[in-house]
Design a protein that fits this description.
By secondary structure, the chain is mainly beta. The chain has four helices and twelve strands. A hairpin with a 2-residue loop joins strand 9 and strand 10. The chain is globular, with a radius of gyration of 18 Å. The N and C termini lie far apart (57 Å). The structure holds flavin mononucleotide.
Length: 181
């Protein structure tokens, strides 16, 4: 795959400052998994996950071209997105390590298409890998959701380079302030 990319503008953007500014966008934390060529489970901590479309059901995430797991995801027909819950900060740190047997001692099970599903997550989405787009120093994966689960566990949040817990939902408060006319 040709990963070459020529920026449209010559303006210099400092990557470290860009990363800090992007940290203002609050995300969840996921572990995206697949199977390696020999069938071993592979996984990586990812916060670039996002919803794309409901009908058809599509999601996306992006993978660094420097990741040890790059070839495994590139070659695999499927992946699973495991959305971590508030109690799984250590799981995020484990799968953010580069290489090694990250599944050793973890509780997990094979889902559809044999994709590794971690136990105790807030949600999981098993996907067929349908598109791959070059994205600078990342490769963007678009997946069609073929199976999903949602538990009652609260999701782990990530912002400004740190993990966070969701406070009391603002939603109901804000909605009560909308005047009824
Ligand atoms: C909260 C968090 C979010 C991350 N999001 C991504 C991501 O979206 N894409 C990516 O390629 N790496 C991401 N990473 C970094 C990878 O998890 C890390 O580089 C990991 O070591 C890659 O594993 P591998 O080299 O074994 O493939 C993230 C790390 C953390 C802690």
């Amino acid at each position: 795959m040709n990963m070459a990319y020529t920026p449209a503008s010559q303006t210099f953007i400092d990557p470290a400052l860009l990363r800090r500014a992007l940290g203002a966008f609050v995300t969840g934390v996921t572990v995206v998994t697949t199977r390696g060529p020999g069938g071993a489970p592979v996984g990586i901590t990812v916060n670039s996950f996002n919803a794309v479309s409901l009908d058809p059901p599509l999601v996306l995430w992006s993978l660094s071209v420097r990741a040890v797991s790059f070839d495994a995801f590139l070659r695999s027909s499927h992946f699973a997105v495991n959305v971590l819950c508030q109690q799984q900060l250590s799981v995020s740190e484990r799968f953010a390590m580069s290489g090694g047997d990250k599944f050793n001692g973890m509780n997990w099970r094979p889902g559809l298409a044999d994709m590794p599903l971690l136990d105790g997550t807030a949600a999981s989405f098993t996907c067929r890998s349908v598109h791959k787009y070059p994205g600078g120093d990342h490769l963007i994966f678009v997946g069609e959701v073929i199976d999903f689960e949602r538990s009652t566990l609260a999701p782990l949040a990530y912002a400004e380079g740190s993990y966070a817990e969701l406070g009391k939902s603002l939603r109901s408060e804000r909605y009560t302030r909308i005047p009824v006319v």
